[in-house]
Amino acid sequence: MNLTVHPFTLPLANPFRIAHGSRTEQPTLIVELSTNVLGAQVSGYGEAPMTSYYGLNSAECTEVLTSLAPAFAQKKDLPNSIEGFLEEIAPDLHPFLRCALDVAHQDLRARVAGVPLRHLWRGKTRADWFGHYGEAALKKTPTCYTIGLAPIAEMVRKLKAFPWPVYKIKLGAGDDDLAIIRALREHTDAPFYVDANTGWTAAQTIALSHELKTLGVVFIEQPLKTDDLAGQKEVFQHSALPLFADESCQTEADVDRCAAHFHGINIKVVKCGGLTPARRMISRARKLNLKVMAGCMTESSVGISGIAQLLPELDYADMDGAMLLAKDPARGVTFDPATGHAVYPDLAGTGVTLRG
Questions:
Q1: Is residue 346 exposed (0-12), middle (13-18) or buried (19+ Cβ within 10 Å)?
Q2: Are the beta carbons of 36 and 62 closer than 8 angstroms?
Q3: What's the pLDDT at 14?
């Protein structure tokens, strides 16, 4: 396998603000793994957004990934997973970089097999795919569209400019949170997911949950700091709305701990290290009777198309990363604005192609 790293800077259509800060662009690395099949090069793609909040730097991460290229060049086979291989050559590799390699490898496997990745997981063949086997029967989970924190008038303007069947509303940075939801509710009947990004206290969360429920909010995502276990326990007992873990659920080891304090988990594929561990997290969450959501960072269609392969396995989805961009370096999965459902390209793998 050949490993190539493509650095990009993704410009945002609008400044994006959450409780942790604001940004107008997002550096990212797109990883390409390729192999030769019957004389033709076949490539798979994954993505690692260089999120400064997690201490990632494009130049440093490019150097790390490039240093792995000789080891990949010696690997001729395409196993179901590259987790064991990565443990051998780079056991301390950052989860974001591990994710990019895992997704690129899974995309490559599916392309070599000639089927979409979501069908490869279900053991379907190329003949099944061309016969449109099971596509209509797959569970369709709509993605939300995120309205980032801003002055209320600006949030209203963004919502009105982007009609969508379900929204995620970023809150948690001030005292206007309830006023924001009330103002937005005047302009749409769509369900709201609320993400406080650890910005609330237990008392705030409990009090707001009752008001938010009457305003059509479906659930609250990560209202408290990750280390506020006493507060999480109190909120879990008294919240009027279901609670979803985000920052509290980053890796497989976190799933069991979340069962006592949350009703569901939001899996970020980049944080857990790829689609392979993400699917194990989904399986474990189901055994613990937790609802499952998959979210994204600010990513291009490369990252989003990988995550979108999980949609048939999810209760909720937040996959709007590419929709927030002013310019996307790739084409892939898109979403129907009427339903929020994924529109998959008629291509193998994750359906991604890089723009020229």
A1: exposed
A2: no
A3: 82
pLDDT in tens, 82-121: 999 999 999 999 999 999 999 999 999 999 999 999 999 9
Contact at 8 Å (CB) between 10 and 25? yes
CB 43 within 8 Å of CB 33: yes
Domain 145-354 falls in which CATH fold? Answer: TIM Barrel (3.20.20)
The SS3 assignment for 165 reads coil
The per-residue pLDDT for 127 is: 66
Spatial contact of 197 and 18, defined as CB atoms under 8 Å apart: yes
Give the chain's length: 356
Provide the residue ranges of all domains of the chain, joining segments of one domain with +.
2-115, 145-354
Q: What residue spans of the chain are helical by DSSP H?
A: 58-67, 69-73, 83-89, 95-113, 117-120, 126-130, 152-161, 177-185, 202-214, 229-238, 254-258, 269-272, 275-287, 301-307
Q: Are strands 353-354 and 330-331 parallel, antiparallel or unpaired?
A: antiparallel
| Contact by Cβ (8 Å): 253, 220 | no
CATH architecture observed for domain 2-115: 2-Layer Sandwich (3.30)
Contacts of 355 (CB under 8 A, 6+ apart): 328, 329, 330, 331
The model's pTM: 0.93
* Cα–Cα distance measured from residue 115 to residue 111, given in angstroms and rounded to the nearest whole number: 6
Residues of the chain with pLDDT under 70: 17-22, 126-134, 136-137
Please state at what angle helix 58-67 crosses helix 95-113, rounded to 10 degrees.
Answer: 50
Q: Residue 76: how many CB atoms within 10 A of its CB? A: 8
